[in-house]
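F.,

This is the one I mentioned.
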């Protein structure tokens, strides 16, 4: 493996994890094409291995239940360029960001439908210029707002320093990534300096009451493995994170979600480049757990992209697998129509059904 590749703006750390300064798409990496990714996943290019189709492993179609979560990927602009990002987000993603008109259409849908939770993700959602207005409007509608915050954004620029207070005023449920409670593993996956800023941001969140018992302000952490392996047991990881973060930094939080890395975008690229693709897919398939199917997040979630298209989940969104429904865009939103759809499945779905399963809220089964 080469140690430095200028053409792809990446380098490898001692842990073998790829560090990037730019997204796949701005470096003309083939893996930025969703067609190419799907060809790789289906053994048509780059890799020889053919794996049993996910749909035949499941043995039946997957259908939705009542929509509980309206997840909006508000944009791909991010202050970080993490090695395993399935969104291919980064500071260079300035175009793919939701505009005010599209957010207004989302608000109208939320007004018209009994969908209790709005889950805002990105990129770094806070970098969208309409973020604060949108959160306030959702709060006025009585919706529960979740925000997927990468933590470092709070420390990145003085204009974001008051985010903890803003979140608290709007009772936003903050869900934050923290790959590990040590600098080496966190910076190895997410970039130099990320751990230090994440700890500083967690302290700021604790100061305003987030993750503090009795405050009602929810702060959950997301753990995902730093390489080509499945996450450990969620309860054990939570207890380890709680005791280590408390002992080392006096930080508290509510729950930890253990999430499996799905073979999509930069993580798929990482698997192929490091020669781990076949082994990883085999481990996902060997760990297939049918009892995860009922709880798959694609059943109770609708995922909306920055340009208003509708998907079964954020992963399908990144593979441009739009919903199998005549309602494909929020401008034509028809809930009755969407409820009759079959979820679009492909080989990446093995990541959601391995072991205890995986969703944006962690384990399923
Ligand atoms: S912080 Fe999140 S969205 Fe941003 S690059 Fe990292 S994984 Fe992707
Ligand atoms: S990747 Fe999406 S569509 Fe596939 S099983 Fe997971 S949540 Fe469902």
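My design for it:
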């Amino acid at each position: 493996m080469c140690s430095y590749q200028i053409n792809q703006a990446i380098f490898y750390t001692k842990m073998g994890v790829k560090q990037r300064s730019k997204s796949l798409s701005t470096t003309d990496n083939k893996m930025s094409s969703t067609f190419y990714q799907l060809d790789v996943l289906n053994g048509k290019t780059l890799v020889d291995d053919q794996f049993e189709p996910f749909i035949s492993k499941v043995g039946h179609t997957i259908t939705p239940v009542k929509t509980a979560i309206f997840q909006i990927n508000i944009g791909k602009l991010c202050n970080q360029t993490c090695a395993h990002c399935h969104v291919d987000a980064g500071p260079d993603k300035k175009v793919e960001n939701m505009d005010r008109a599209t957010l207004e259409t989302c608000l109208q849908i939320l007004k018209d439908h009994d969908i209790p939770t709005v889950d805002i993700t990105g990129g770094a959602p806070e970098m969208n210029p309409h973020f604060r207005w949108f959160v306030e409007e959702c709060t006025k509608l009585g919706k529960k707002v979740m925000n997927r915050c990468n933590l470092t954004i709070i420390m990145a620029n003085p204009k974001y320093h008051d985010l903890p207070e803003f979140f608290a005023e709007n009772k936003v449920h903050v869900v934050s990534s923290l790959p590990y409670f040590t600098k080496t593993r966190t910076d190895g996956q997410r970039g130099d300096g990320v751990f230090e800023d994440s700890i500083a941001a967690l302290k700021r969140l604790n100061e305003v009451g987030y993750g503090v018992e009795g405050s009602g302000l929810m702060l959950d952490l997301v753990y995902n493995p730093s390489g080509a392996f499945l996450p450990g047991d969620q309860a054990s990881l939570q207890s380890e994170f709680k005791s280590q973060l408390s002992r080392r930094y006096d930080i508290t939080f509510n729950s930890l979600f253990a999430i499996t890395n799905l073979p999509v975008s930069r993580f798929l690229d990482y698997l192929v480049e490091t020669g781990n693709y076949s082994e990883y897919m085999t481990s996902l398939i060997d760990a297939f757990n049918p009892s995860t199917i009922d709880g798959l997040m694609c059943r109770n979630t609708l995922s909306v992209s920055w340009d208003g298209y509708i998907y079964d989940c954020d992963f399908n969104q990144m593979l441009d697998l739009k919903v199998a429904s005549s309602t494909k865009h929020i401008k034509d939103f028809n809930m009755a129509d969407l409820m009759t759809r079959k979820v679009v499945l492909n080989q990446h779905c093995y990541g959601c059904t391995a072991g205890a399963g995986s969703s944006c809220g962690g384990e399923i089964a």
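Residues 47 and 272 are 8 Å apart (CA to CA).

Talk soon.
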